[in-house]
């Protein structure tokens, strides 16, 4: 979720935001790029049914309110304390701009806190009290994820709001984030195979396509490798709706909003004007595709100058078959055909078109990725799909 200000000189993607610095974050530090034009989004709009997933009938609340979300459990702080052994350090799964994420245990049926190691494992995100804008993001997460349901969106089980304590309880995603797999050079983690990269790309693309085709066209706004979580079978689920926005309505092409997101992933038109299009998400998706193809971070200040911004550096290579081979992650050498790689390069290039209108829709992206996946599958397997 969240984004914060902080030290800029790191090799990880930098959030663009107006949120003050939170100490101790893993991948979150940012510069205040720009401030803001008030959002023209309707604050109160109704969601309705959408294909391949469901959108509850709840309303987006005026600022400062939590929606009625009948499918979410309201946890007491005491319950979550028990579930995490009093937020013991050995239960920490990770840390982001919002705060720490703890592993916890709940009874599968009642969602009552369970003894460590029994029942169902969950991930519990606890807001860092120093986070100034955290409340808005927390609220946005509850309101969006409480209303949306799809196999490629992480499931929010419930929340806790007690005094200053704000927490979110999610399904546990055993393989953690895509970022961990792509960039953390842990010898105990096998490099992601080409097939798994494609599987993850397809899952995440389906999640975005679902958001974009829902009645209100939800724009996710913070698509990046750290926000794609993986289940035990590398099924991808999008997490962190803290920055999500309802899309344009009444024939408008975009919403105008404060510029927030992550350096290296945010679309150029959005950074330049604050105009946020549904297709701004497609750009972010293109950046993640490029990260998966190359195994390199969107931004890395440790790379030589001219190579620090992955898109600027690699874009010219994507349309040239021979050059393309030289930039694909060596860890997946021999796992893909040149036809599949070339089509993946072309698709990435389309997603990164400077003009949002020239980018494909996420539905088209899903179809293209499925075709690429089919290229290297033996015929027999294709027929079973
Ligand atoms: N549902 C989950 N299941 C398992 N691990 C999780 C879950 N949610 C988060 N994590 C772990 O906690 C880490 C921190 O997540 P968090 O979303 O707070 O920060 P982030 O995604 O790294 O950065 P940002 O603040 O920009 O979102 C993740 O990298 C992941 O390893
Ligand atoms: Mg996150």
Description:
This protein is of the alpha+beta class and 385 residues long. It has helices at residues 77-83, 134-145, 178-183, 194-213, 268-273, 278-294, 310-318, 321-327, 338-351, 362-375, 379-384, and strands at 15-16, 54-55, 73-74, 92-95, 99-106, 120-127, 148-149, 156-162, 165-171, 218-219, 228-230, 236-238, 245-246, 255-256, 261-262, 275-276. The model is unreliable at 2-12 and 17-63 (pLDDT under 50). The chain has a six-stranded mixed β-sheet, with helices on both faces. A two-stranded antiparallel sheet has the order 1-15. The chain is globular. The protein contains eleven helices and 16 strands. α4 (194-213) packs antiparallel against α6 (278-294). The protein has two domains: 23-171, Phosphorylase Kinase, domain 1; 178-384, Transferase(Phosphotransferase) domain 1 (Transferase(Phosphotransferase), domain 1). The chain binds adenosine-5'-triphosphate (ATP) and magnesium ion. Magnesium ion (MG) binds at residues 1, 96, 226-227, 239-240. Its EC number is 2.7.11.1. Residues 1-37 are annotated as: Disordered. One of its GO terms (molecular function) is protein serine/threonine kinase activity.
């Amino acid at each position: 979720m969240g984004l914060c200000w902080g030290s800029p000189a790191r090799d990880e993607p930098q959030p663009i935001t107006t949120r003050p610095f939170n100490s101790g974050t893993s991948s979150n530090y940012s510069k205040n790029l720009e401030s803001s034009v008030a959002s023209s989004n309707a604050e109160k709009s109704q969601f309705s049914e959408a294909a391949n997933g469901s959108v509850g009938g709840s309303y987006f609340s005026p600022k400062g309110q939590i929606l009625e979300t009948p499918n979410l459990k309201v946890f007491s702080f005491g319950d979550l304390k028990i579930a995490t052994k009093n937020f013991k350090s050995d239960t920490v799964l990770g840390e982001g701009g919002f705060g720490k994420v703890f592993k916890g245990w709940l009874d599968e049926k009642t969602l009552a806190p369970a003894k460590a190691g029994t029942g169902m494992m969950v991930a519990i995100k606890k807001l860092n009290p120093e986070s100034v804008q955290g409340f808005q993001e927390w609220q946005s997460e509850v309101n969006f994820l409480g209303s949306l349901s799809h196999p490629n969106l992480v499931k929010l089980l419930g929340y806790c709001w007690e005094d200053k304590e704000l927490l979110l309880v999610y399904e546990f995603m055993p393989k953690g984030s895509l970022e961990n797999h792509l960039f953390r050079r842990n010898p105990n983690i096998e490099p992601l195979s080409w097939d798994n990269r494609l599987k993850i790309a397809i899952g995440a693309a389906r999640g975005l396509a679902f958001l974009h085709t829902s009645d209100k066209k939800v724009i996710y706004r913070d698509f990046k490798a750290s926000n794609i979580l993986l289940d035990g079978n590398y099924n991808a689920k999008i997490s962190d709706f803290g920055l999500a926005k309802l899309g344009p309505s009444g024939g408008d092409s975009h919403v105008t909003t404060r510029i927030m997101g992550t350096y290296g992933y945010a679309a150029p038109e959005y950074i330049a004007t604050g105009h946020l299009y549904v297709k701004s998400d497609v750009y972010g998706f293109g950046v993640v595709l490029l990260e998966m193809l190359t195994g390199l971070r969107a931004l890395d200040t440790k790379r030589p100058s001219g190579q620090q911004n992955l898109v600027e550096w690699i874009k010219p290579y994507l349309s040239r078959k021979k050059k393309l081979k030289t930039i694909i992650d060596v860890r997946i050498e021999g796992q893909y055909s040149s036809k599949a790689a070339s089509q993946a390069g072309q698709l990435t290039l389309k997603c990164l078109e400077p003009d949002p209108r020239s980018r494909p829709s996420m539905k088209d992206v899903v179809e293209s990725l499925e075709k690429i996946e089919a290229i290297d599958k033996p015929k027999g397997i294709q027929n079973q799909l």
